[in-house]
């Protein structure tokens, strides 16, 4: 496994995949991880941290299973550097699979390696990737995409998702699951890049009383958040609270509470082993049946089926990306 490093590279784009593959070696993997820079010298990352290189590009003679091309803030300068792009091509020729992290997709595209292929990058740059390289079919919401021997992933931490999928390819789901648990990360994270927490999507309100109610629900979704209870805590009428939610949040109090509870339940199902009754109680649904109905209504799957999908990275699915399941 080879990681190409260069001046200004983003640190986590490099260390995330390295951590996955080296951790896999603790559970039966046999990866030989090496860093390569253009001239073999150490580089300074965008965070100011120095990373040493094991080899210079000209010293890479053996093929590798995986080549990782990370991104960096100065990608727009690198895509104009023909000598740099030639280095990317030369490394690609010796790799069985070439994978990019975040804006590394721009480097692959500029090197002509994504012609006619599907690809992903950070959501903030997906439109620019599509405009700059129209032959690349950009999937803006994908966490990672596989197209032949090329893999591309979304922003920064998505390199970990991509690396876990490759570990599963090479050594099976059990090893990938062991690595994910050891690193305390999702085996397969929920949703796509467009999915953010319910509370963070609510526009900032000038109404302090409403902000307090929203925070109370987000901080403790299992508490009593009936309309009458919220109105009592706010010292307002039921009608006034309903109007505030509709005008400021764009939904009813009941719908907002259910969305927050659904998000909390998803986190518990993804990361823990609590039983369905415990999850339902902790997140305010009360019973597994109420929670099941909410999952089916919003996500189209039962809570049990939702939990089951985290037994794999999803690398073998049709698109090798997470399905969007926004609330």
From TrEMBL:
Transmembrane segments: none annotated. It comes from the Bacteria. PROSITE patterns: HTH_ARAC_FAMILY_2. Keywords: Transcription, Transcription regulation. InterPro entries: Class_I_gatase-like, DJ-1/PfpI, Homeodomain-like_sf, HTH_AraC, INH-QAR. The keyword Transcription applies. SMART domains: HTH_ARAC (SM00342). Residues 207-309 form the HTH araC/xylS-type domain. This is GlxA family transcriptional regulator. It comes from Streptomyces carpinensis.
């Amino acid at each position: 496994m080879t990681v190409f490093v260069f001046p200004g590279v983003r640190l986590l784009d490099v260390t995330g995949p390295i951590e996955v593959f080296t951790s896999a070696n603790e559970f039966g993997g046999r990866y030989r991880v090496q860093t390569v820079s253009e001239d073999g010298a150490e580089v300074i990352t965008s965070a100011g941290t120095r990373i040493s290189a094991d080899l210079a590009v000209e010293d890479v003679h053996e093929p590798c299973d995986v080549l990782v091309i990370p991104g960096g803030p100065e990608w727009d300068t690198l895509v104009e550097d023909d000598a740099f792009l030639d280095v990317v091509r030369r490394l690609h020729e010796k790799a069985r699979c070439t994978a990019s992290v975040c804006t590394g997709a721009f480097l692959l595209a500029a090197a002509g390696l994504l012609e006619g292929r599907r690809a992903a990058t950070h959501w903030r740059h997906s439109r620019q990737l599509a405009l700059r390289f129209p032959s690349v079919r950009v999937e803006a919401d994908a966490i990672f995409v596989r197209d032949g021997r090329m893999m591309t992933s979304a922003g920064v931490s998505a390199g970990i998702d991509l690396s876990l999928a490759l570990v599963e390819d090479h050594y099976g789901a059990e090893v990938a699951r062991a690595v994910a648990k050891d690193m305390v990360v999702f085996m397969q994270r929920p949703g796509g890049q467009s999915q953010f927490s319910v509370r963070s999507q609510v526009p900032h309100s000038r109404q302090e009383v409403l902000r307090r109610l929203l925070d109370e629900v987000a901080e403790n979704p299992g508490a009593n958040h009936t309309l009458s209870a919220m109105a009592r805590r706010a010292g307002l009428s039921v009608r006034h609270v309903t109007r505030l939610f509709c005008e400021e949040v764009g939904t009813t109090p009941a719908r907002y509470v259910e969305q927050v509870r659904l998000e909390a339940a998803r986190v518990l199902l993804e990361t823990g082993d609590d039983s369905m009754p415990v999850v339902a109680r902790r997140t305010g649904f009360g019973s597994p049946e109420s929670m099941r109905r909410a999952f089916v209504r919003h996500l189209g799957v039962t809570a049990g089926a939702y939990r089951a999908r985290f037994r794999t990275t999803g690398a073998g699915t049709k698109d090798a990306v997470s399905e969007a399941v926004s609330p």
